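In response to reviewer comment 3 from the previous cycle, which asked for concrete evidence that the modeling workflow produces usable outputs, we include below a single protein chain processed end to end. The sequence was submitted unchanged, and the resulting C-alpha cells are shown without manual editing.
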Amino acid sequence: MSVITPSKEQSKRSAADIFAAFEYQWNYFVLMLLKENDDAATVSFELLDDIDTQTEEGITLYQIKHSVRKSSKGKTINLSNRDTDLWKTISIWMKFIEEQPDILENSTFQLITNKEISENAFVKAIEAYKETLSDDKLKSAIDAIKESERLKNGIVTPNTSKKKGLDVSNIITELLDKPYWGEFCKRITISRTADILKEKIKNTISFRFGIIPEHINEVYGPLMTKLRDDSIENIESGKPVIYNGSVFRDRYHAILDIGRKKLNFRFDYSLDSLSGDFRDFLFIKQLISIDDTKDDDLDRIADLTKNWLFFNNNLQEHWNNNDIIHEDVKRLTEDVYAKWRTYYYSNHRRIKSEATCNELCEAGCNTVDSMRQCEFLLADTPLGNFLSEGCIYYYSNSATEIIPDLPLIGWHRDWKNKFKK
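The workflow returned the following C-alpha cells.
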C-alpha cells in the first residue's frame, strides 16, 4: 500500500514516532470525513492545518498530536502544563491569525491528543473562561503556567522545553501580548481521543452507512486503501486533499455496497392495525380532491390504504433496525420528487388560471397515474409495483418521524394551499 510522505517537521523525530503520529493524523482525517454529512462542507488534510473543516458557519482548524510514550503504569502520558505539543500548537495558530487577522471571527481551533488532559491547567482555564469570561482569572492561570518550573527528584530545574527549541514562557508572553488573546482562547478546544482510532472508524462506517458487523472488515480495508490512494494521487498531481460531505456517495458507493445487505420486505401487515376512518388520511384526501377516488368507494380506499400501510411499515421497520440510513431515504426522496416534478409540470403547464374543476381533476389524475407507473429503489433494493405505489402515497401524506416535512408531493394544482399546513 502506498504511503504519504511525512513533512520536514515530522522527519526530525524517530521513525516509530513519525509513523504513529502520521497514521494517527490520517485516521483522524478519515474519521472527520466519515462524520461529515453536509454536501457543502469540506474536510481537508494538510491544507490550512493538520486537518481543517469548512462549513457555512466557519472554519475549524485541527492540530493532531499523538504520543507513543507511556507512564510507569503503562498508560499514555499526561498533557503537562508546559507540554511542547500544547504550546507549539498555540504558536502555530497565532502565526496563522497574524497572517490572516480577519479569519479569527469565524474560526475555531481544536487540539486533538491521545494524552490525558484532565489535570492540565491550561485546559481547565480555557474551559472555565468560556463560562465566566473573566479575563483576569484566565490571565492569572496562564501567568502561573509561565512562572512554573519543573521539579525532578525534589530539585528545581530550568524549563527543559528550551532545549527542544521551544521556549514555552516566551510563547505565553507572546500570547498575552496579543490584542485578541481572550477571543482566541475562547475559541480553543482541547480534546482527548483513543490511542488507536481503527475501531472508532469501523463503528462510524457501520453506523453511518448501515454496514452489518459481519461485513465491516470487507468494507474497512478496501475503503481505507482507496481513500489513501486517491489522496496520494492528488498530492502527486499538486492538488489539495480536500473532500466534501458527499464523497462517499459519489466515489466509494461500490465499496460500501459490499457490506450492505439487500432489504427484505414484509407483506403480512393487516389493515386491522389501523383505527379510524381511512378517509382521514391526507393522501386519501388528496386523491379524493381530484376525483381519482370517490368518497364513498370504501373498497378502493381500503386498497389504496393497504399500499400506503405496507410501504410505511417496511420503511419504519428498516429505519428502526438500522438497515437503512439517512442517505438511503434522501436518495429515495430525491428520486420520487424528481419524477413527480416532471409529471406535475407536464400535466399542469397548459392549465390556465380560470381552468374548470374537470380540467384540474384531469391534470391531477394524469399526474398520479404517471407516478403509479414508476418503480423506486430503497437502499438499492427494488420496491416493486405494490410498494412503489405505496411510496407515492407516503410522500403525499402527513409528516412522519423519518420525513417531518411531508407532504412533499400532490396532485391538484393547488395542493399546497389545500393540504400542506
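Residues 272 and 306 are 10 Å apart (CA to CA). We consider this sufficient to address the reviewer's concern, and the full set will be provided in the supplementary archive.
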